[in-house]
Design brief:
Layout: E1 4-5, E2 8-9, H1 10-34, H2 36-42, H3 45-71, H4 75-86, H5 88-107, H6 117-150, H7 155-161
Antiparallel strand pairs: 1-2
Length: 164
C-alpha cells in the first residue's frame, strides 16, 4: 500500500480527498432522492461520487493502518481506526442506492406512477437514512481523528506561557 508521497505520510493526503468526496456523495444522493429537479440536473453525478467514495474509503483505511504502524498505537488512534473501518458499511449501500436512483429515474426515465408506492417510498426513505448515517459516521471519524492527532498538542506550551 502507498505509505508515503514525497516523504509525507499518504494517509493525511488521501483522507482529505475522502473527507470531501464522501459527504458530497451523501449530500448528492440525499438530494437526488428527495428533489426531482436536482435529480434531473445532476444526472449520473451522485452515482459517480458514491462510487468514488467506495474507492477512496478503503484507500483511506489502508493508508491509515500504515500510518498507525508508523506512529505506534494509542487508544485514541484505535478508536479512530475502528470508526473508520465502519465507513465502508455506509458508502457501499450509498452507492447501491445511488445506482438504484439512477436506474429508475435517470437511465430508465421512470415516473412515480409506473412504480409501486412501496418502491417509491423506499427510493426516498432509504437514501435519506443511509446518507444521514454516512454523514454522521464521517463526522465521528473526523472528530476521533482530530482528537488522536491533536491530543496533548499545546499543553506544554500553554502551561509555560501562563507561568505554570
Amino acid at each position: 500500500m502507498l505509505d508515503t508521497v514525497l516523504g509525507l505520510p499518504a494517509h493525511p493526503l488521501i483522507v482529505h480527498a475522502t473527507v470531501v468526496v464522501v459527504p458530497a456523495a451523501a449530500a448528492a444522493v440525499l438530494l437526488a432522492a428527495v428533489w426531482p429537479r436536482f435529480r434531473a440536473w445532476a444526472g449520473w453525478g451522485p452515482l459517480a461520487l458514491a462510487v468514488l467514495a467506495v474507492v477512496l474509503t478503503p484507500l483511506s483505511t489502508s493508508s491509515g493502518e500504515s500510518f498507525e504502524h508508523r506512529l505506534g498505537g494509542s487508544r485514541l488512534i484505535e478508536d479512530h481506526s475502528h470508526l473508520a473501518d465502519l465507513l465502508i458499511w455506509w458508502v457501499v449501500p450509498l452507492a447501491v442506492l445511488a445506482l438504484a436512483l439512477y436506474w429508475i429515474h435517470g437511465f430508465r426515465g421512470g415516473r412515480p406512477q409506473q412504480r409501486g408506492r412501496a418502491l417509491t417510498a423506499a427510493l426516498v426513505v432509504l437514501p435519506v437514512v443511509v446518507a444521514v448515517g454516512t454523514l454522521v459516521q464521517v463526522v465521528l471519524i473526523g472528530h476521533s481523528g482530530a482528537r488522536a492527532a491533536w491530543s496533548g498538542t499545546g499543553s506544554s506550551s500553554a502551561s509555560s506561557s501562563t507561568g505554570r
